[in-house]
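Re: [help] complex structure
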Amino acid sequence: MAEKTNTEIKKEYVDAVVNKYSDMLFRICYCILCNKSDAEDALQDTFVKLITKAPDFNDDEHEKAWLIKVATNISKNMVMLRLRRNTVDFNDITEIGVKDEDSEVFEAIMNLPVKYKIVMVLFYVEGYKTEEISEIIQVSSEAVRKRLQKGRELLKIEFERCNYFDE
Amino acid sequence: MNKYVKEYIRIINSMGIDEVTKECIKENVLLKAELQKRQAKKQMAVASVAVVALAFAGTYFYKNKMK
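Output below.
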């Protein structure tokens, strides 16, 4: 059997990581950028960095944490370069898989400050512990816990403002 | 876990990218990585030439000054 070339090995690796992590990273990038195209660009740049830097990972968790850190930093840099305010495009909502009936509350959730959105996604959706989040986003565990608490309060306010559970 | 958080998780989990976009990303990642590698090589070559040119200019200047 012919041996695989370096390009083929790279291609297989890219296929595997994109299939495995793209949805998770897209959610994080979208929460920061609130824009589908920008989130896709950030996602692509994250994978490019993975290929060009080719860091050594101890295990899958290490690789996942590295990708989250890079995706977060790239998205934050994009926000800094972009002077306009983040607003969710209505056309984006259905394209990214969110149901029509959830669109109002989704927009409200996306309007929460970025620092709360990041910790909430990592804690509730990705299942990271506060200590792990503090390592990924480089803030203290105490700050992560405070942000989670404040995030929950803001979430409640937004859900109530949208009369989500009264319907 | 309160009802707000449960709904939040459900809504965020419904987000994702389609298969077509994933395929585009896979192709673009390899091309962009290759491009960046070539650009880095080119920059390295330019920097090496600049260093050699500076070394020659320095030697020439030093020799002329010594005369």
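The two ends of chain A are 63 Å apart (CA to CA).
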